[in-house]
């Protein structure tokens, strides 16, 4: 038996999936979730083979939810996005369903998912992150997982970000949070009027800067309002001068 979880904030959408799945007796729905927070908990506990995932949900989007998972099932996205925008999801999903969809279109998506399961092809976190980075959007927050807790960090609460091997360390309100993202993605996706890459390994929230100080002939440090210091390269200093108008 193939296990599945349905994650959608609309009950009608979940009911449609449940109804259409009657055509596939080999698939058992073991969980339904109305938001991404429930989705993370349910998938972590049940580790289903397949998930039907709405992209646009309040509080936590489908992509944000996937980034918090250790176990990534085969995915069928559902969304109200138009077909052009949805191309962003094709690399990390068995298929996508553009709402409203028919039983025939649903069956096609499920058959693709079954083929992937038969081939033991389960998408990993790397696929999800690479797809999101390829189609980078402007971030308005960062979501991290700490143990069993999901923490949403507003951008204005981020002090600075530091590259650490395959992760980034996000410093916010005196705490350090690790997340597996690239500096290149963050540099592209964070709003330019709020964040600047001041060093190969550091991005700083310019609203958190108190002052700049010379460290050596070609290097500087940004002293933040909480007295922490962030190294600033020569090119980073030039960027800050332009952004801060001094």
UniProtKB/TrEMBL annotation:
PROSITE patterns: HTH_LYTTR (PS50930), RESPONSE_REGULATORY (PS50110). GO terms for molecular function: DNA binding; phosphorelay response regulator activity. It comes from the Bacteria. Keywords: Phosphoprotein. Residues 3-114 form the Response regulatory domain. The keyword Phosphoprotein applies. It holds the Pfam family LytTR. The modification 4-aspartylphosphate is found at residue 54. Residues 142-246 form the HTH LytTR-type domain. This is Two-component system response regulator. It comes from Fulvivirga imtechensis AK7.
